[in-house]
Write a structure and sequence with these properties.
Length: about 200
Amino acid sequence: MVVDYRINEDEFHKISLLDCDFFIRKPPDPDNDVYDFREMYVTPPDTDIYSIPRVLAPMPQKYIRCAMSDYGCYNVTEPPIDAPRDPMACFSFLQVFLTKHYRNRRLGDPEFVLDFEEIYVIDSKTKSITRAKVIVTAPGGRDRDRKNDLLVIRDKGTSFKIIHASEKNDPTTVIEREEWVKTREDMERHLRKLRDFSVSNWF
């Protein structure tokens, strides 16, 4: 829904994605990491046509501190001349993750840690925001030492799991496992083509 007024963008966190700009109310704070999810807008890239974004999950009803990270896309093709935003530029973000500070502690607090159980996902394509569904396998329950938490994000930013840091695999193992899965999928697609015909056109 397009609104019939303009906002003061200086009072909002502006999050630039590939397909849109997302605005979340920014309460005054020296750390610049406080978000008020009760007022949000979305616009086409670099325009002032403000709309209410799609909200796909309940949002916090009070100020919270969040750290921002992104899931990027790198397109090696030449962009159209009239592209609103060059995919090769820094605006090639498909998703942005806002992760709550545990117990809203400031970044400089000696006990600061991120609360991986509370992550908000802003999606460029659907112009929406939701709360991630996070699976927790780290031992200790809610009273565990969260400094030992390790967040694993898979399936193009749709699968979230918290494991203990001791379960971390080295990069080589992860790459080999992912390549093996992809190789099997590619081979299965190839064999399926042969099985789908009574007489293969390869012979």
